[in-house]
Specification:
Length: 319
């Protein structure tokens, strides 16, 4: 049963304890309802992808109560500081280099070295984020491929019984998602138009790329910068040799030079939570053990297995 909570002090306190326990809680922001999880808990983040039935691991936005909290997880440049000072809190998401010491789970940004951060202005969102005092990963609280929810009822229509609770604060005032701006390059790039107008952004920082009349935006899911291991990757391994590092699922194959087990019990949610960590660990330790490639055991294509296999296929594909 998904609990419908009022966004008052007791409701927010309950939402905080659910999030601390690794549960999923939908909450109102000024743009759309977000499906929130403790961003530092990889299993909770994996559960977000499972609840949304996303076919692949799109990177998620991290939500913070204020600018200082946000900039503790990413490295802001001058452009980011200027935009944050004038347009936060509000419907603007900034993609910036993730700090290596950040506690945000690698799965949150789907293994990227960047992180999307946002400080929402809705009072219920602010109260929740302040009380939790941890970053909250939150995509829109709908099933993949359906429209974003702007009321608590919309959230229940799509996700009832798949999440612990919804904090109901009525309809979202903006009603479209946040504007996503990539600031990881020299030139800012608009990844998604949204609640903050381009005019407001350009008034602060000058012309923005990607906002061309052609309407062609860079598609984050297709980004070449998506983390791929530097070791070559072999899929669907049914045996393994000593010069290979094994990405195991279930009972590991014997004979590998190094092994990282995504889930000894064969649980796809646990495997998703550990996928990007596992690729990085094998990439770093494999060569130390004389491994020339990573061999990945098959993961059944059910539930999060689809997204895991999508990610592994891309990592194994031509560079
Ligand atoms: O208004 C919003 O942004 C809502 C509320 C809940 O905050 N959230 C939302 O999340 O719309 P979602 O997951 O539906 O969309 C996030 C967008 C996607 O287009 C994703 O690819 C992009 O942000 N994104 C997230 N992290 C990124 C990153 N590290 N690099 C590039 N794009 C990123
Ligand atoms: Mg969405």
């Amino acid at each position: 049963m998904t609990e419908l909570l009022a966004a008052d002090a007791p409701g927010i306190a309950l939402a905080v304890s659910l999030l601390q326990a690794g549960e999923l809680v939908a909450f109102c922001t000024e743009t759309v309802y977000g499906l929130g999880a403790d961003a530092t808990n990889p299993r909770a983040v994996a559960a977000v992808f499972a609840a949304k039935q996303r076919p692949r691991f799109n990177p998620l936005i991290c939500h913070y109560p204020d600018q200082d909290a946000a900039f503790a997880d990413v490295v802001p440049n001058e452009t980011a500081r200027r935009l944050a000072a004038s347009l936060w809190p509000g419907p603007l998401t900034l993609v910036l280099p993730r700090r290596p010491q950040s506690r945000v789970a690698l799965l949150t940004a789907a293994g990227l070295d960047s992180l999307a951060v946002r400080v929402p202005s809705h009072p219920a969102a602010s109260a929740l984020l302040r009380a939790l005092a941890r970053p909250v990963a939150a995509p829109s609280a709908n099933r993949s491929g359906t429209v974003s929810p702007t009321t608590a009822q919309h959230v229940l229509d799509g996700l009832a019984d798949r999440i612990a609770a919804v904090l109901d604060s009525g309809p979202c005032p903006v009603g479209v998602e946040s504007t996503v701006l990539d600031l990881t390059d020299h030139e800012p790039v608009l990844l998604r138009p949204g609640g903050t107008t381009l005019e407001a952004i350009e008034a602060e920082i000058g012309p923005v790329h990607g906002a061309s009349s052609s309407g062609v935006l860079r598609s984050p899911g297709m980004m070449a910068s998506h983390y791929a291991p530097s070791l070559p990757l072999r899929l669907d391994a049914v045996s393994v040799s000593v010069d290979e590092a094994l990405l195991a699922f279930g009972t590991p194959l014997p004979g590998a030079g190094a092994t990282f087990n995504l889930s000894p019990s064969g649980d796809p949610i646990e495997a998703a939570a550990r996928l990007f960590v596992g690729l990085r660990v094998l990439d770093a330790t494999g060569p130390v053990h004389g491994c020339k490639r990573i061999a990945a055991m098959p993961v059944p294509s059910a539930g999060l297995g689809h997204a895991i296999n999508d990610r592994l296929r891309r990592a194994a594909g031509p560079r």
